[in-house]
Specification:
Length: 499
């Protein structure tokens, strides 16, 4: 230990490597805090009430945006439609996004602004829901069809984006996160984050996942994985292969058990997906392919496999499959053989209680199959998909280990779950020699807990409190309960008491 080293007496607290959330929409999460929160709604009338109140708060004529509704939790057991929104707010644009972010509902004012009619052809990879009798749009848009509307929503100024990022980062560090993998889809997000980084305002390390639509521009500028610095860097290209289970747009090999007329939505045909992955790999860019249904996961692994065979150095990029939700035994083995990282979100096991209904009992057995993937030798990293799920790694660890017995979702032991948020996460960013474990010479990215998750019952893990979070040796979060004594290692005398 060097003579200038600082020693802290934590009075029995537990220290772990800082947690890393490998799948977030951090800026979007912060921005959502400015919109209507529909997460707790249990009926369409509750959605309407919240929109009416939001309309009173927001200036006249401005768009109303809402987030987080889930038709599975509504007493009507159906999707909201344009006429439901018209009844609440008929005189200004309204757009509300499902909790998964893969579906939205717009009111008639937005239908008019976007010029969506019975004759409108949806974009490739998108669905415009229509009235079965009239063919008129219902107001429900899925996947790429949402782009028709989101392109019309006025952009926020940089100040609002900065405030959103600050709000989200404060929440992140309070849960023990020292780094997040942040999915972005607007150049403004990167511009604002870069400005904040230069000003020293970033308190968590941010690894950006950029959309594949930016691939050509990024490669023309010579951007590859690792572009940036130790606080803000480009990590991967995010590619959508399909949608979500909740919206029934995840691409399945066979139809949905509760909607026999659909097997989901494919965003890119196989040849196109292969081309995107190979182009990214040729330019030194890791890919992160959003694949939830078994058909989409198969396509993603095939694209990665072809890139590994045809592009020198591709396998060294440690390509990822985001979610990897609905699998089968062959796909579990293929994940390992392709050297693909499975980027999973354990808290879905807690939230998605409708899985057996959606895919049937047989397929449900290998939905979120964490243990099978680990036993195959595949590398798993974990995240929250915030704001879809809470940005709280301890809740994610709990979900990965708690024996919920719901007919889907496999559990792992606590040590394995912690590695998914620490050591494995470091591997996913080629930083296993810099972080992920507590060793001399590694970054001082640490989380301090009031109890050791390895020594408590699984159901207690989610009740553990984060006492402090440290990034690069600097405290970025300290709870009121944190009591520590700072001691000078050179002379062993008390220097400062109580952080």
């Amino acid at each position: 230990m060097g003579k200038d080293a600082i020693v802290w007496n934590l009075h029995g607290a537990t220290v772990l490597p800082g947690f890393v959330d490998c799948h977030t929409h951090l800026v979007a999460y912060g921005l959502e805090l400015f919109g209507a929160n529909l997460r707790q709604t249990r009926s369409i009338s509750e959605i309407q009430d919240i929109l009416v109140r939001q309309a009173r708060r927001v200036g006249a004529g401005r768009w109303l945006l809402g987030y987080g509704w889930d038709q599975e939790k509504l007493k009507e057991q159906r999707f909201p439609n344009r006429f439901d929104l018209d009844a609440a707010v008929p005189d200004r644009p309204v757009c509300i996004f499902r909790i998964c972010g893969h579906m939205c509902v717009i009111n008639s004012e937005v239908v008019r602004l976007a010029n969506i009619t019975a004759a409108t052809t949806p974009p490739i990879g998108g669905v415009i829901d229509r009235d079965r009798e009239t063919g008129e749009p219902s107001g429900l848009l899925r996947e790429n069809a949402m782009n028709i509307v989101t392109s019309l929503i006025p952009t926020r100024d940089d100040r609002e984006v900065r405030e959103a990022a600050l709000l989200a980062m404060r929440k992140a560090v309070s849960t023990g996160l020292t780094a997040v993998h942040c999915i972005v889809d607007d150049p403004q997000d990167i511009r604002v984050l870069n400005t904040m980084n230069r000003a020293g305002e970033l308190v968590v390390r941010i690894y950006l996942l950029i959309p594949d639509a930016w691939l050509c521009s990024a490669t023309q500028m010579g951007i590859s994985t690792g572009f940036g610095d130790d606080m803000l860097r480009i990590q991967a290209v995010k590619i959508f292969a399909n949608g979500s289970l909740g919206a029934r747009t995840a691409a399945l090999e066979k139809p949905y058990s509760d909607a026999r007329d659909t097997s989901g939505v494919i965003i890119h045909p196989q040849d196109e997906l292969n081309m995107i992955v190979q182009s990214a790999a040729r330019h030194g860019l890791q890919v992160a392919i959003h694949a939830i249904g078994d058909r989409a996961v198969s396509m993603a692994l095939t694209a990665i496999e072809k890139a590994n065979l045809t592009v020198p150095g591709s396998s060294g990029l440690r390509h990822r499959v985001e979610h990897a939700s609905v699998l089968n035994r062959d796909l579990v083995v293929k994940m390992k053989n392709c050297k693909a990282i499975a980027s999973v979100q354990p808290h879905f096991i807690v939230s998605d209680v409708w899985v057996p209904e959606r895919v049937g009992d047989k397929r449900a057995r290998l939905v979120y199959p964490l243990r099978s993937l680990v036993e195959s030798g595949a590398t798993l990293v974990a995240g929250s998909d915030c704001p879809v799920e809470p940005i709280d790694p301890l809740r994610g660890i709990y979900a990965a280990v708690a024996p919920l017995s719901r007919g889907y979702g496999e559990q792992v032991d606590t040590e394995t779950a912690i590695r998914m948020f620490t050591k494995n996460a470091a591997y996913a960013t080629y930083e296993e020699k810099l972080k992920g474990t507590i060793e001399v010479g590694k970054l001082a990215d640490l989380v301090i807990l009031d109890r050791n998750p390895l020594l408590v019952a699984p159901e207690e893990i989610r009740r553990i409190n984060v006492l402090a979070t440290m990034v690069g040796g600097r405290f970025v979060y300290v709870s009121k309960r944190f009591q520590a004594t700072r001691v000078s290692s050179a002379r062993g005398r008390l220097v400062q008491k109580h952080v």
